[in-house]
Structures
1.
Amino acid sequence: MLRILIVSTCCLLLAACATNQPKTVETAPESSAPKPQEHPSVAKLSVEERSQLYFSILLADIANKQKLYDVAQSNFFYAAEQTGSKQLSAKAAMVALIERDYVTALDATSLWLEADNKDKNAYKVALVASLAQNEIDDAKVYLEQLMPLLPAHQDEKLYEIIQMASFQEEADFISLFEVLNESPSSPYIATAEAYLRLKSATPEKQYDRIQSLLDYSLDKKPNFLSAIELKGEAYALHSNDKRAAYLSSIIDQKILDTEQTYKLGELLYTQKNYPAALKALKQVQAKRLNDEQTQFLIASSHYALDNFKKANHGFWQLAQQNYKKEITSYYCADSAARINKLALAYSCYEMVPEGRYYMTARTELAQLYAENNLMQQAINTLRHAQRKVGLNDRQRLLEFEINMLTQTGDYQQADRRIQSALQVSPDKPFLYYLKLQLLNQTQSVQEFRQSVEELSNNVTNSQLRTDIIIIGTHFLQKRNSHLIAYQLLESAVEQTPDNIDLLYNKALAAEPLEYYSSMERDLRQVLKLDPEHSHAQNSLGYTLADLNRSLDEAKALIESAYEKEPNNVAIQDSLGWVHYRLGNYEEALKYLKMAYEQQESPEIASHLGEVLWTMNLQSQAIQVWQKALRMNPNNQYILRTLRRFPEANILNP
């Protein structure tokens, strides 16, 4: 993208708009030549006039800070008239421009130019104010006077023109530039018009005009980088491939200087045009042998193109030079691992300093050690890292370590690590999660249930006891031990009958067992304890809708939940399903599509397919069902639905 940033603020439009700081006045030696006064003398003013002047300046500054621009404008202008001060005239002009008082802006600019007729910012304000009043001829004169005062560097010159042209929306610079470009004489004005058209609301409709203007600019100045980039952006309106081909051809022509080539290479890199970026950056590298940023972009481009051997060479050199040490050492390791240079990968991972890539580097290093049967090195890597990071990262590393020990069957060491951590932090839920995860892998269902209850009974924190029961329940459900999971929750609820979390989870655990009466009773108890419990409202409403009874109550419950969480996919699905049960097929389709677009779960697919089938959109229903079956071939929900629609001919084609 063109690196021209348009910011519509007075301090960007006017370099001279900053408040002057007080300066220490020193007495010059007699031999020194007298310096011109920075501000016109006010000696000719009476004491009363000077008092009024100082009051006006103070009032104007205060009003300006408080955005009372009308007050600021009148007082700055009065002070400028009294003193002829360039600074006060500039402030008066700028505030008037903000207030869209273009007549006063021009009057203040006249005072400004009397003080300094070489100040480019004065001509900018005059140009904007004239154009805002549709004084095209005056605007042309001011632009003509402005152009010689702009920077000589072509991209900087264009930047200032566009900056000015984007300041005031009432000033129609496109029309002005269009008139001037009827007989073009300035590639900068032509490029500025092209930029404004390209950034307008309808650039596609102005494509030919944009290209014509840029062709003129580049004919006059073939190495005008901003025009080149804009031409690429114009091509991208139709095709990114055209832009890529055009910018690549510029690199091949070698018409840019080294700095311009680097900038274009950087742009190509950000556009993910890595082959062209490499061509540009290699040209730069030939002129700047030791430029580390160029080397970095070359290595990064090779990595993006899967040239891991070349990428590794570049990242290794940069890491050794400590250039962007964190990222270069990480990608040195990653690329080395990809080309099976394990010793170098180990070394580079070890070089990654603490920071953004540290955690990833340590876990990947541990994984690499483990994959190559260096288990003790893997464990040591994780433990060493745990001593250097904060609490959250330490927990993640410990979890990674325990999972690694568990995967390799070293259950005893995994258990010792958990027990050691529990002695230090006995109230951390994640440690109990790891403990239960380990027990779930090593115990029978009945043994695991007993362990869950023992762990829960041995902690004093009531919320932690609840968490342990719920975590244990989820592990049991994943093992399809739904009855044991339900019994575990049932026993826990008997001990704390008003625990909302346990009651709600017990209700959910009843669903796969088809204990609908128990489910409804528990959900109603949850809502009695917490009438605004949106998940309980949704679950009860959905259960009633699925049983096809009390549909008005079901709809009211689900709608109440939807008001609280309109983006909740489960609630959207429930709302669609209850509308289906009520015969509101269009509403049902709306909510089920909304849910399906976010999550293509078997349950939502089953519901959506059924609604589509009922609405005589059988082919669409079959597509939804078939996709769900491919993704979840053993899901009982989708299988149960398809058995009710044998005519769809999906289960037995």
Note: The chain has 36 helices and no strands.
2.
Amino acid sequence: MSVPVVVAVVVSYNRAELLGAALDALGDQSRPVDRVVVVDNASTDDALAVARQHPTAPHVVALARNTGGAGGFAVGIATAVAELGADLVWVMDDDTIPTPTALSALLAARDAYDGEVAALCSRVVWTDGSDHPMNTPRRRPGASTAEVERAQEAGAIPVRSMSFVSMMIDAAAVQRSGLPVTDYFIWNDDFEYATRLLRHRVGLSVPGSVVEHRTKKLGATDADPGPRFYYEVRNKIWMFSRSDALSFRERVLYGGSTVRRWLRTFVRSSDRRTLAGAGWRGFWHGITRGPRPDTEVLSGVGHAALTVARLEAGASLPAPVHVNRTAASTGSFGTGEPLDGQRFSVLLPVYRGDDAAHLERGFRSATVDQTLRPDEVVVVRDGPVGAEIAAVLERLPELTDVPVTVVPLPHNLGLARALEEGLAVCRHEIVARADADDISLPERFAVQVPLVAKGYDIVGSAIWEFEDDEDERGMVRVPPTGEGIAAAARFRDPFNHPSVVYRKSAVAAVGGYQHLDLMEDYLLFARMLAAGAHAQNITDPLVLYRVGAGAYARRGGRRLLASELALQRTLHEEGFVSTPQMVRNVVVRAGYRLVPERVRQAGYRRYTRSRGGYVPDDL
């Protein structure tokens, strides 16, 4: 059995002394943790300095504002899995002090259990050694005798839920189920997340793993929360009505116990007026609102929001899949330097949503139809495909004398990760992008490739839109040229992605593609320009761009709005756009995402014309 990479995640807020004690305890583990992540929720005390100066050398994520426990743990888990390669994520608050054998006991139970375990938790005690009532895991109702005995053989108890006070999560479960809901802020975020993780998977409580939860008081879950009762009520309603963490039977069971606990809290409260007001607001917001997307909630907190967006894009994967990055970190490249030759690769991704006939036509256009043919074609099959596409992929080598390499990914990873896999396979410095449903005109590579060979790092072109019949063409989208490329990039993508030809080293130098719905190309190109890439666009259309059904629908919606916010935030943090530019972009571009599709289509055509786009009949 391979040794798992364990990354501990500590969420910190204004408890510098306790944070130091928690980090000391992590450093004293009999089985050392491999990495430590500290997510600081904009502390106003010395917590951030304590984290940065601690001997455990934690990876510190300093958020620009307090996102609560929910946001902190979402960021921490995403950082551990997406950036640090964790196999297991061990999460805890900054007032959690693990005993020296806490980690080794969790791992021992995991190894001893006969089967897969999605999450494990420790026994949580208070400072006097008694069990802490705030962190008591719920035993799994209806667990069979065999399930109980299997857990007992591993020194554990099967449970249905657990808290974020010493919870160890398998990265595969994170990939499948996603992250905590950040809009919960505090309370019930761990209950919702744990029950979501464990609805169809195994969770174990390990009494032999002990941590101390140093709360000020030994309080139970029905202690008077005052105004924070708002979060308890709102989040419980969200969970029961909008989350798939619980079955119908469990909703009834836990709903009844929740109401009883609320009544006990109200009866025991010394300030029932405050409690009633907070509860009513929580109830109203719980039924009239829903949790916002994580990237929207995390707007403005820093680069961590992009990490969350990247991980959540793969949350539906059946299993985690390793992706070879073209570059592990940013670097430099020799912009403007000529190359010795013009050998080049074509990089073409395909997934199950593509059309087989379109794929074959697009492939022919990029190979046999070209006046300057590529030296290889790398086709990335992004996950399983249907029989028709599979048949075309098998036939590709018969369609051309150009060498063809098909890179099969076992699961759909999304465009950015598929392109990263493909770039890793491309053998030549010059790489031309092509899409499965677009058509490269015969002179495309003969025009673009020599320019890249002479010194340009990226060269795009105008594209000619069409719907079904490639002979019935519509709008020509003309991109900016020369110095106008960098200026336009502050407000919009200055390249038409399926038209670009670039140097592989220039892409690698800025970290390659990173997932962001329909905007991974914009983010990449902005970073290339910021790094000094020598860029140009051809104003003649060299690609026929298929604008099929749903093209304008895909440019809108809350999910794409969240990507837009994450993009603008990232470009601002990296200094590519100024604050006024970012505000302008959010107002204009985010607003465009939310208008009805018909309005969006009309606005797009008008905007394209204002930027030099035209229909040939207009000339």
Note: The radius of gyration is 27 Å.
